[in-house]
Specification:
Blueprint: E1 5-9, H1 19-26, E2 30-34, H2 40-47, E3 52-55, H3 62-67, E4 73-76, H4 86-91, E5 95-97, H5 104-119, H6 122-130, E6 149-153, H7 157-168, E7 172-176, E8 190-192, H8 195-201, E9 204-207, H9 221-226, E10 232-235, H10 244-253, E11 258-261, E12 281-283, H11 292-310
Parallel strand pairs: 1-2, 1-3, 3-4, 4-5, 6-7, 6-9, 7-8, 9-10, 10-11, 11-12
The structure holds nicotinamide-adenine-dinucleotide.
Nicotinamide-adenine-dinucleotide is lined by residues 78-80, 100, 103-104, 107, 153-159, 176-180, 208-211, 214-215, 236-238, 262-263, 286, 288-289.
């Protein structure tokens, strides 16, 4: 194959299967080079000459963006793009693409699973049985689910999918999203509410919004204080949306009943995190989006997005919309 372009994977995992990405990139005569670096200087060295960059969660900071010489596209493996400095990329006319719809059902299923696991005390009961207990201690408060209220913060793809599934279980759904039109709420069975009302009313608060400068630590001591003492916080979005120390305090004091968490301020979660010692928390290691199907689809779409821009087309999903004013590309396919 003649090689016209070099695409660099900035943080390839050992043994990562890159066949789907390579298949898509071959169509535009691009080769894929897998790299990983332990610091920013190493990362810059690896991506400096790349025509395109694929990234899982390495930080593509302003300094990295300013150091790259001919990159036209950065593609994030996933939905959230908080690891890329979008303004810096826009400034340099670099398209930041992401894959928005690859794990919507997986994440909404996971959020619902955490709601059910918290409410039905799944992990706690399972641990008790393994310790030889059979209903030896009081179950404490146990939610009914039907007739209770789920509050969804962020009514995007995942939030809407969760709302539809929750309504099927008989949950009443309220949602807060200042950026979607009022008419988007009713079709998925959600009633609009502002954040304060949602926090006061919900038995389960599910976070399904992106991490941005505006949403960082959106849920802190004040917001947790508004929640019912019987309510649960579910976070499958991004850890830093929640002030983790304030959450630990609320969980320890019993200000809220518990939490189901897939994401954390710092990942992997530190082995000495107080969250690991709390009985009223269900934890999963940032796996809400995982499934074999989602992984295959993600790899194909990442390769496809990079190939599209190298061929002079817009990818399906552009994260830095402002770059559209700076580039004249053909419309996205399909
Ligand atoms: N845990 C995982 O494995 C995993 C997997 C995929 C996505 N995610 C996270 O889930 C998030 C949501 O994904 P999505 O596909 O639904 O994205 P989306 O862009 O379709 O929806 C996000 C919604 O949040 C809303 N929003 C933004 N700021 C808000 C605010 N201050 N208050 C209320 N709503 C606000 C937006 O208007 C949008 O409707 C992603 O940004 C990502 O961080 C996590």
């Amino acid at each position: 194959m003649a090689v016209r372009f070099t695409v660099v994977h900035a943080d390839a995992r050992p043994g990562q299967d890159l066949r789907n990405e390579r298949r898509e990139l071959r169509a535009v005569e691009a080769k894929l080079v897998a790299t990983s670096a332990s610091d920013e200087a190493g990362l810059i060295e690896n991506v400096r000459e790349a025509d395109g960059i694929l990234v899982i969660d390495a930080l593509i900071t302003k300094r990295v963006v300013e150091a790259i010489t001919r990159c036209r596209v950065i593609v994030r493996y996933g939905v959230g793009v908080d690891c890329v400095d979008l303004d810096a990329a826009t400034e340099r006319g670099i398209v930041v693409a992401h894959v928005r719809d690859f794990c919507t059902e997986e994440v909404s299923n996971h959020a619902l699973m955490l709601v059910l696991a918290c409410s039905r005390k799944l992990v706690w009961l399972d641990r008790g049985m393994r310790d030889g207990q059979w209903r030896e201690s009081s179950l404490g408060a146990m939610g009914a689910i039907h007739g209770e209220t789920l509050g969804i913060v962020g009514l995007g793809e995942i939030g809407k999918s969760l709302a539809r599934k929750a309504a099927a279980l008989g949950l009443r759904v309220v949602a807060c999203d200042p950026y979607v039109e009022p008419k988007a709420f009713a079709p998925c069975g959600a009633r609009p509410a502002d954040l304060e009302t949602l926090l006061r009313e919900a038995d389960y608060v599910s976070l399904n919004l992106p991490l941005t400068a505006e949403t960082r630590r959106l849920i802190g001591a004040r917001e947790l204080g508004l929640m019912k003492s019987t309510a649960y916080l579910i976070n499958t979005a991004r850890g830093p949306i929640v002030h983790e120390a304030a959450l630990v305090e609320a969980l320890t004091k019993g200000a809220i009943a518990g939490a189901g968490l897939d994401v954390f301020e710092e990942e992997p979660l530190r082995p000495n995190s107080p969250l690991l010692r709390l009985d009223n928390v269900v934890l999963t290691p940032h796996t809400a989006g995982s499934s074999d199907h989602a992984a295959r689809q993600l790899r194909r779409e990442v390769g496809r997005a990079a190939a599209a821009v190298l061929a002079g087309r817009w990818p399906r999903y552009v994260a830095n919309a402002a770059v559209r004013d700076r580039l004249d590309l053909l419309p996205a396919e399909g």
